[in-house]
Amino acid sequence: MRAPGPSFESELAAALRDKSTPKERSVGRGRTVIAAGPATDKRHLARWLSDERSEVIWVNIHRRAPDLSPRDFIAAVLAARRSATASVNRLLGTCDLPGFRQEWSTLLAAIKKQVRQELLTATPNGSPVQLAIALESAARDARMLHSLYLDRGNQVAVTRQGSNLDRTRKAFMQIMSEYFKKYCGAQLRAETAALTEIAFPGKEIDLDNVRDALRLRGRGRPAK
Q: Hey, where are the domains in the chain?
């Protein structure tokens, strides 16, 4: 008899414990490696883990998409939250992104420390390659942060009404509904509403909110 797999909550906990950085995310041997690098990812995972609906949401989704792994789903939801934020920012031309300035401040301090040390120890007799490697590493980290918050946006429909946070919630609903339609054959509005509350706390999301977000894309009444 096949042993039951780990619970969804245990997968969330494993993702939260992962200390690797975003650039170390990879897919190998059929297993997605989830790295909760940015602090916003960690806070999102912590809220998700503590939410009593997390296991039920996964059971409902897995029933419709039995080939979908918990790790792939977790990675997709984290990516959807980042993508929603980046999408709204790109469309409206603002850098007032939740978590961005804190992440950039931390990374900038680390880059300055790293580069300063390399510059202080570099000598004409030493290899220029070592300094180049350090500078390239710093540039790669900065580009990765920019990509996480600003570049990875989906095609979403937003309006200028409401706050940036409300617009980002709507973008997230659109992205997740498309994801569920692709993998589950339906938009799963109830699951989308619950995941939106977890990703962007502070507002209760109902089915009407999800319908309104989907109507922004000009698709009329969303299919059940």
A: 8-95+153-215, 100-151
